[in-house]
Amino acid sequence: MNEASFKVEKAPHIHRKDSVNRMLGDVLIALIPVLVWSIVAYQWDAVRNIVISILTMGICEFVFVLIVNRLPYDGQKHSFKERLLFAVKAYKPHNLLAPTVSGAIFALIMPATMDPSYMIYPALILGSIFGIVIGKLVFGGLGQNIFNPAAVGMVFAKICFGSYIVYPERDFFEVIAGGTPLASLEAPAGTNSLIGKFLSINDTSLLDLFLGQVNGTIGEAFKIAILIGLAYLLIRRAIDWRIVVSYLATFLLLSCLAGAIVCTRVDVNFFEFIGFQLLSGGMLFGVTFMLTDPVTSPITSPGRVMYGIIAASLTLLIRLLGAYPEGMAYSILLSNLLVPFIEYRSWSGQKFTYKKMIACAAIFAFAALAIGLGLGFGGEIVAETGGSR
């Protein structure tokens, strides 16, 4: 086969007869149930988040297209209108769809409001700008970024505006104002243990977690809407099932290991512990709409399996042993960072070799060992009248 037979294209590399616009459209359709539920639950707060995020990212993308596609110098003087029209011709449908998808996802992983309420505006605007500019445009635009823009924006907003974040009561579902279920995990008075905080799991209803009757970001709570979107994306093959299955399987197995340790040391039901880990926080939303991004995920099948294992391991390590209760966004960014290493040409390929299987098993074993040691030596439950040991 001669050199002229090859066609070089930018990511995302979709292994089917579909365009990038079709893939982005599928993601938008899959987001509709979550968007509708968030508007019903949070009303104008959700509408504000969605509109501001999409509009801000869309403007940044448009300005980027204008800057990159300037009229080349030809020795003649051209009017501003001529230069503008030349640049606008380079604006394609994906330049509209991509920031719309990223903006919608970013809006859904943000809180409905902040305290004081006006702080939500700089958080949304600056988070959207930082997410799309630093997470995508500085790399050259769609297909060249290595980080998920929505995750970058969310982490930036969390770091800069985390002290203003609140999760208010939703009148429609009559839930109590307060922190998210993950953030509310605290060791009771009289305990001196890493695992003592899991005692509060007994106070959380798994049905409420599944139906979205808990506090949290505007898009993560109602699991039925997320599962509908996940099913649609899998049926349409807009995302790779290997990432989803490897992530969920690893997450479930490591949760079982953690539950076996925790439930032997504190009075927590094993199945409630597992259900809590699966249904709380933004894990399900993240694996559906963010981790599976074809631009920032590996190309090869073994690489995608390894990618899912790494992301799930990082999520639970951050959740169970770290200071930050929700590890999904951080695990996505760290996994994105490892994709070039996973897909390094010297060992990447489409075939599952025994070396790749050993690598996947080693990653899982390392995570299991870290969780086992972390929870196993995380301190003892101490009686209120007793001292620390």
Automatic annotation (TrEMBL):
InterPro entries in the cross-refs: NqrB/RnfD (IPR004338)
Record bears the keyword Transport: yes
Any one GO biological process: transmembrane transport
Keywords (A to Z) from UniProt: Flavoprotein, FMN, Membrane, Phosphoprotein, Translocase, Transmembrane, Transmembrane helix, Transport
Top-level taxon of origin: Bacteria
UniProt keyword Disulfide bond present: no
Residue ranges crossing the lipid bilayer per the database entry: 23-44, 50-73, 94-112, 118-139, 146-167, 216-235, 244-262, 274-292, 304-322, 328-345, 357-379
GO cellular component entries: plasma membrane
Protein's UniProt name: RnfABCDGE type electron transport complex subunit D
Protein's organism: Candidatus Alloenteromonas pullicola
